[in-house]
What we know:
Elements: H1 12-33, H2 40-52, E1 57-61, H3 64-75, E2 82-86, H4 91-99, E3 103-107, H5 118-126, E4 132-136, H6 148-155, E5 158-162, E6 170-171, E7 174-175, E8 182-186, E9 200-204, H7 207-217, H8 238-248, H9 251-269, E10 275-277, E11 284-285, E12 291-295, H10 298-307, H11 336-344, E13 345-348, H12 356-373
Parallel strand pairs: 2-3, 2-4, 4-5, 5-8
Antiparallel strand pairs: 1-9, 6-7, 6-11, 8-9, 10-12, 12-13
Amino acid sequence: MTTPEQIPFLRLDRQFAEHRDAFMAAMLPVFESGAVLQGPPVAAFENALAKTLSANHAVAVGSGTDAMILSLMALGLPEGSRVAVPALTFVASASAILHNRCVPVFVDCDPHTGLAREGILLDLIARRSVDAIIVVHLYGQLQDLDAVGPAAKAAGIVIVEDAAQAIGATRHGVPVGRAGAITAISFDPMKVIGAFGSGGAVITNDAELAARVRQLRYHGHDGKGNYLRPGFNCQMHSLQAALLAVKLGQMQAWQTRRTVIAAIFDEHLRQVPGARRLATLSGNIHNHHKYVLWIDRREELRTALAGKGIQTKVHYEVPLHRQPLFAAWAASPACPEAEAAAAHVLSLPMYPELTDDEARRIALAARTALETLA
Ligand SMILES: *Cc1c(COP(=O)(O)O)cnc(C)c1O
C-alpha cells in the first residue's frame, strides 16, 4: 500500500515553479541598479496597488503589522482612546492599539460569518463608547459596513480597515478600503499576495494621512531633509516590491482559481452532518483566502485528515480577549461567540496551486471522516 501524497497547508514551492522566469526577471534590475531601498519598484508597486484597489494613495511598508500600527499612528488618536476590534482575529489587529497607547474594546463575532457582529458595532457607536473602530475583513470577505459606516461617520468615530486577508474581495462591487479612513494590507507569505518574506501597505484617499504614513515609515522624514516626528525604519525593500508586482498581476487569476476550488469543497461538503461552511454575506465577493468550516467535532476531524496527509489550521485557536497580552482588557464585554468559534472553526488547505484532484481528495476525506463521526 502506498501512502497518499501529502497535501500541505501552503505550496509556495509550486507557485515559484510556475512563475520562476517572471520572478527572476523582476529581481535582476534591482540587483543591477543597486537601488535596493525606495527604488523605482517601490513606487511602481504602490501605483499598481492603488490602481487595483481604486485608492488615491498606497504606501508600502515592511509588514501588515507595520501597516496597522502606522495607520493608527497617522490618525493621531489621543492616548487612552477606546478602539473597537474583533475578538476573533489575528493578534496584530489589536496589538496595534496597544502600540498606540489606546484601549482595545473587544467585539464578539457573528457565528454564521465569523465577522464582527454588526449590532454590537452599531450599539458602541450609538452609545459613543469608542473613539475608533478597527474592522477586520476576516477570511477574505468584507465586513458589512452599510449601516456601520454612515453611523460612525455621523458620530465622528473613525474606521480603520484591517484588509490583511481581503485584497481582491468586494462588497456591492466596491473593493476593500472605501468605507474607512485608512486601510492596512498584508503581504505575509500566507496571504493571497505574499512577499518572499514580509511586506505590507497602507491605502487611503486622504493625502494627509498618506503623507504621515510615508514619514513614519522612515524616521519622520518629509523627503526634503527635515525630520518632523519620531518614526521607524519599516520600508518595503525594492526586491520585495518587484516580486510583489509580479504576484499582483496574478491576483485575479489566482482568485478565480480559488473560487473553483471553493466550489469543489462546497459541492462535496454541503450536506454533511456536523459541518457547515461559514456564510458569505449577500453583496460580497469572497476572495476565498481562507476556506473555513464550523465543525462540531473539530479535533477528531483534524486528526482524521492529518492521518490522510492533509494539513489543516485553525484561525484562531484563542480569541484575543483570552490572550495573556490582553489580560488587562479581558473584562470588557464578554465574547461567547468568539470563544465558540475558536473551538469549532477549521481552515482547509486553499491555494491556486491545488489541483482539482487534490481538492476532491480533501473534500472527500473530510466528508468520509464526518460521516463516520456522526
Ligand atoms: C496577517 C494579518 C495581519 C498582520 O500582517 P503581517 O504582514 O503578518 O504583519 C494583521 N491582521 C490580520 C487580520 C492578518 O491576517
